[in-house]
Amino acid sequence: MTADRSISDRSRPSKLMAITPIEKEFALSRSDVRRSSVDVPLIIGRQPFGPFHVRVTLLCAAALFIDGFDVQAIGYAAPRLSEDWHLAPGALGGVFGAGVLGLMIGALIFSPLADRRGRRPILILCVLLSAVGTLMTTAATSMTGLAAVRFVTGLGLGGAMPISIALISEYSPDNLRARMIVVGFCGYPLGSACAGLVAATFVHSFGWQSLFYFGGALSLLVAPLLVIALPESLRILTLKGGKSRQIRRILHQLDPAHRFDETAEFITHEEKSPGFSVLYLFRGGRLPATLLLWIVFLASLLDLFLINNWLPTMIRSAGLPLQTAAIATAFFQIGGIVGALTFGWLIDRFGVYRVMSMGNVLAAIFISSIGLVSGVVWALIPFVFCAGFCVVGGQISLNALASRFYPTHMRSTGVGWALGMGRIGSFAGPVIGGYLLSRQWGTAAILFSAAIPALAGAAAVVCLSLFHHLTSQETDPTSRPDDFKRAKPLKIGGSA
User: Fold this and answer.
1) pLDDT recorded at residue 298
2) What CATH number is given to the structural domain containing 163?
């Protein structure tokens, strides 16, 4: 007897209730006709976009908003903090580096933990940890103490980012996955831009600590929302097994028309890793692509954090007021939001590798151009906007690509370790910027140097494209190297 006949025949007893056309496709009857097997990833992938997707995306975007706000806040606080503490130019480089080191370690530790223990509890833990570190920043009275609390804050924020990206990816319909990740990740540059507006409004009157009071309050506001409204990943629950009641409840939220009784068996065809998920990043033909992806992340985040942390100081040193420096740097993040949305459309139309390689080349051009006009407001802001368009927009799109490389049991780990390895660039960027400033390098020279990683990232994307093409040709001679949707021959995406 076929699945459709067993579902549609109302004269026979069935444990599957409130049958919908979607359930006819996904519920497969067993030989006893009393127990059905439901392919959970298939249901998620073919669901139309709805209120449930909006809720998950907004909640994860809120966690990323906190990340963007806090990471950028220390950059906006740096000029006023340096004046209050009578610090030499570049003296805060170690503090910036401590925060980024925390981001790196947090990504490496918490992302595998989320693959093993679940996305939701670890994300909530990360947000609470960042709240504690952000509020403790206001009480710092020495460079050592400030570096310590920035490290603690970074631990929480570093874990929150890959988990949020993985969770959005795992609830996205197949035809909207990249765009949903891009939209959700826009929370990060929005948070960074908000930090600039808060800095321009409050730092002059209330001191640099006002930024971190604001950021800590945001974290404490978001954490209860995550506890109340954020669901666990259905894919993780299905892989774990024994979570049928929770799966049924979340499926009902995803689509109220789905009604499965207690005997329904929820399945997934994705593999489950029995051991340490990090090791699987290098197996099944993933090693070259994983390493190339890390290089792209490293180059991208080096530029992103160098500019985030030091651009306000460099603009201030060019003779412009602090408020102008904060507003100009906010346009870097605004450009990133516009860039991310544009990149998502361009990737769907022209392919991820063409768009990402060209984006990195343009980023190098616009970063260099900022150094030539740093003292001219009317020219500075457009070039900062365009640099943000390419650097931040490209980084967000890179997260969308990384999330598709890995199956569920290692997705958070894969994204987290790519971000974690990229955080080496995040750590190096602020330190290099501080060192160059301490050596009396000018703004133009520093930003010309910052163009080099962008060009290196473009080269790595080209190599990734060539590897993808060669690997795809082995299994599918008709595959195209720039077709984002044909990543399966790499054996990197599994059934995701």
Assistant:
1) 92
2) 1.20.1250.20
